Here is the input.
Amino acid sequence: MNLKEQQYVCTLARCRNLSRAAEALFISPSALSVYISNLEKNLGVPLFKRVGKEKSFVLTSIGDQL
Here is the structure.
């Protein structure tokens, strides 16, 4: 995992909200969503659980280990 990937994952884990994390990273929410989805596909494991009506992003145990 490179530094950019780590930054995106850590920011989303801290913000727990796609829009707020994207704003903090100066990218669009859709770009962050695609990036995280592709990262999870490439790693072969889910890094986040999407929880609740608001779709809060919560790290899985594997995501937490990273």
